[in-house]
């Protein structure tokens, strides 16, 4: 089982962010957002103090996507460190730099999330020096200026990280009783998997949109990149899974009976 060892700097803290996801990112009118918005323009619901004017009513107002999104702490990092506390309202140049750096920082923080989780995996002990080196290299990238960040091609670095995460995954899944199934990249949209034993399954990049996972057992399963939008995880055991993120949890439909890793928070919109 992974230990809950992820840094608090990888947990989003909106109180230290200048509402970057509400400004920098575009969104299209859909079931997730009530309106269209171009990237780089503030959402009409954003307040002067960077809070959300409809925060308690987001879901009933058609902004479900806002209750799902998670930046892995990239917002506060760019706001407070990369741009040193200067806000996008202060100057168009700062705004341009901030909005370009934010999505890159989010990718880097997501990689840091997986690397830090991996460092807590006991059976991956032999990989720790390599994991720590890549974690430190990723951290150094996050400390670059906004201009450098904006021009960064994260792809090559991500491939290096992913190669190591795969090795962690194999060791981790190997602890599961029985032989975990391989559903890598599988189309499991709407699949009926209630009560299934998915312990040790390789679900990397699988599509589980709207799947029925009620009371499924996902311990020792690798959930990196799994699309859990609308998946029913009521009563499911997701504790002891690998590479699950807050973003995925927020997108799923769970309840008080859903078991989560200690690093993640039960969404307030769950029943
Ligand atoms: S509705 Fe609120 S949380 Fe969503 S983008 Fe607008 S200000 Fe941000």
Structure description:
It is a single chain. By secondary structure, the protein is mostly helical. Among the domains are: 86-173; 179-271, Pectate Lyase C-like, CATH 2.160.20. Helices cover 34% and strands 0% of the residues. The protein is built from eight helices and no strands. The chain is globular, with a radius of gyration of 19 Å. Iron/sulfur cluster binds at residues 22, 43, 45-46, 52, 54, 63, 66.
Notable characteristics:
271 residues, mainly alpha
Task: Describe the structure concisely for a colleague.
This protein is mainly α. The chain contains eight helices and no strands.
Q: Fill in the CATH topology of the domain at 179-271.
A: Pectate Lyase C-like
CATH architecture assignment name of the domain at 179-271: 3 Solenoid
Any idea what the radius of gyration is? 19 Å
The number of helical elements comes to 8
What's the CATH superfamily of the domain at 179-271, by name? E3 ubiquitin-protein ligase SopA
Total strands: the figure is 0
CATH class division of the domain at 179-271: Mainly Beta
Report helical residue fraction.
25-40%
Structural class: mainly alpha
Largest sheet: none
Low-confidence stretches: none
On the 0 to 100 scale, the average pLDDT is: 95
Query: What is the 3D form?
Result: globular
């Amino acid at each position: 089982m992974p230990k809950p060892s992820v840094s608090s700097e990888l947990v989003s803290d909106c109180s230290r962010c200048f509402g970057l996801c509400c400004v920098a990112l575009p969104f299209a009118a859909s079931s997730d957002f009530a309106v269209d918005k171009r990237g780089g323009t503030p959402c009409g619901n954003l307040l002067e103090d960077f809070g959300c004017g409809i925060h308690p009513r987001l879901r009933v107002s058609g902004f479900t996507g806002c209750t799902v999104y998670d930046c892995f702490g990239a917002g506060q990092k760019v706001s407070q460190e990369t741009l040193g506390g200067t806000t996008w309202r202060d100057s168009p140049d700062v705004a341009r730099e901030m909005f370009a750096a934010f999505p890159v920082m989010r990718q880097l923080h997501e990689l840091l999330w997986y690397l830090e989780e991996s460092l807590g995996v006991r059976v991956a002990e032999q990989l720790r020096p390599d994991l720590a080196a890549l974690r430190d290299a990723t951290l150094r990238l996050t400390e670059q200026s906004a201009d450098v960040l904006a021009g960064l091609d994260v792809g090559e670095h991500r491939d290096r990280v992913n190669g190591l995460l795969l090795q962690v995954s194999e060791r981790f899944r190997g602890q599961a009783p029985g032989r975990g199934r391989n559903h890598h990249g599988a189309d499991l949209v709407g699949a009926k998997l209630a009560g299934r034993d998915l312990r040790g399954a390789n679900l990397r990049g699988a599509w589980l949109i709207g799947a029925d996972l009620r009371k499924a057992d996902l311990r020792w399963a690798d959930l990196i990149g799994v699309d859990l939008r609308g998946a029913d995880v009521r009563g499911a055991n997701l504790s002891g899974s690998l590479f699950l993120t807050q973003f995925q949890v927020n997108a799923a439909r769970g309840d008080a009976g859903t078991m989560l890793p200690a690093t993640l928070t039960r969404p307030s919109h769950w029943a």
